[in-house]
Amino acid sequence: MANLFDFELPLVDDENFTTLLSKKNVVIKRIVSNTLKTPQEFLQKDKDEWVVVLKGCAKLQIDGIVHKLKAGDSIFIPANTKHTLLKTKKVVVWLGVYIKKEESA
Fold first, then answer.
1. CA-to-CA distance for 15 and 17, rounded, in angstroms?
2. pTM of the prediction?
3. Contact assessment for residue 94 and residue 53, using Cβ atoms and an 8 Å cutoff
4. SS3 (DSSP) at 1
5. CA-to-CA separations, 82 to 26, 48, 54, 105, in angstroms, rounded
6. Residue 1 binned pLDDT confidence (cut-offs 50, 70, 90)
7. What is the DSSP letter of 101?
8. CA pseudo-torsion sign 39, 73, 32, 79
9. Which of 14, 52, 76, 96 is deepest in the core (most CB within 10 A)?
């Protein structure tokens, strides 16, 4: 059994992504952000994304709207939606669930 809070701290202004589970069309990752001050832009072209903050605080911008997230807050980001992690306050631990669109037959 793994503990979500047992991780190596990334360098300041950086992030670590660790895959915890990968099945058919779902991937679950632990993301650790360390005092991000440089905005980082993301785009999951073929996956919906749901993230929850397990520890810490962050500002995430989606479609021009800034979301202030704290421990326990979650947000759904549809596939093909650019989003920017503007900054984090110290260390933030996230759980990310990525759901790949199933191919039509």
1. 7
2. 0.90
3. yes
4. coil
5. 20, 11, 22, 28
6. low
7. P
8. negative
9. 96
Rounded to whole angstroms, how far apart are CA atoms 75 and 87?
Answer: 16
The CA distance from 105 to 32, in Å, is 37
Give the tokens for residue 6.
Answer: 């047992």
Token pair in block for residue 9 = 């701290």
| Strand bridging mode 26-34 / 74-77 | unpaired
Residue matched to tokens 């905005």: 39
Chain Cα centroid distance, residue 30: 8
CA angle 45, 83, 76 (to 5 degrees): 80
Summarised one tens digit per residue, pLDDT across range 68-96 is 999 999 999 999 999 999 999 999 999 99
Contact 58/84 with Cβ under 8 angstroms?
A: no
